[in-house]
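Annotated sample (chain length 384).
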Amino acid sequence: MPDWLRMPAKLTFQRRGIVEGFFGPPWSMGHRAALFEFGANRGMNTYLYAPKDDPYHRERWTEPYPKKEWTELLKLIRLAQVCRIDFVYGFHPGKGLCFSAEEPVATLLTKAKRFYEAGVRTFAVLFDDIPSQLEHAEDKMPFDGSLAKAEGIWLKKIFTQQPAAWTDVEWWICPSYYTEDPLLARIFGEFESSFLETLTDHLPQSVACFWTGPSVVSKKITLAHARKVAKRLRRRLILWDNYPVNDLSMSQEMHLSPLTGRDPRLPEQVYGYLNNPLLQETLSFIPLATCFNYAADPVAYNPEKSWRRVIGERFGEGAIKHWRAMRGFCERVNRAKNKNLPLPLSSKERSQLMAARRYLLENRGRRWFEEFRPWLDLMEKSPA
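Output written by the structure step:
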């Protein structure tokens, strides 16, 4: 492990940064470059490339990147290296995978070799959001009908078949069971009761495991919860925090608030802390700044102070009151069952939103204004 990834004297996570792991249009290369600089200045040292809608990451993961796409990725990898950010490449092979077949392992390692030659030393194998049971009849007997066993052994195959010279490579896994949230079973089917224990019975000891907390989108993550999960996994734990992401069923939500509800003592048990960001590129800097501040120094982190600082830096001190009104409005929309109905407002709230609306319109044409436009439309319904 490089010296810059080792645990510093103060209580913080060894891995801090971003998992670009949402459903929806992947971020632009220009935004990723801007985020690297922004994040590195706030302690970010890790970036996991795993956009669900990159076809060569997920749907067509067995195919190499075409020349144009590969050239762009190479630039991004090099920029990460300049910013002292560990570029982690994520494979998403689970959809339709036959675990007993030998070819997929060889295919993955061939693809990984290209990244290794470009300087990438950390890889993630992601089995999130696939059916909870084995899909192929030929997998039933070799893995005793257990998806958890199949995933653990598949990582072991990768581990044992990688080139002998890859002593500096780190592997991570996101198991299909990545939270105890009942939502997972409702979407993907019932999971085996001892999934995590079975997984780790077969998983190489050095492989770190992802977890999203008590829920897919967790309001709180406590040290007690992390200890409970770590005891079951018996591996280094990486939190894939689904804040401030707003994909899929959250597409009508806008998360501009600071990160809250994360135990300041989590680094005692958690190796890595990565946030899944907003789809809106420019607006994403607001909540992500607070996530970076928390990850870098959880004990000293002050959500409101962190939020005011990033708003002041990016928009000016005079704009804080408008962004506070916009943030409050979005929080109420996020909680509403029907997000298209006008919100009841007090006269004070209406006055604050009208001022925020004027501020928004004065900034028409800016990238962040266009990203916020759907919520401006909702705002204009409410104060009328």
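Annotation: The longest helix spans residues 67-82.
Annotation: Residues 3-301 form a domain with the TIM Barrel fold (CATH 3.20.20.80).
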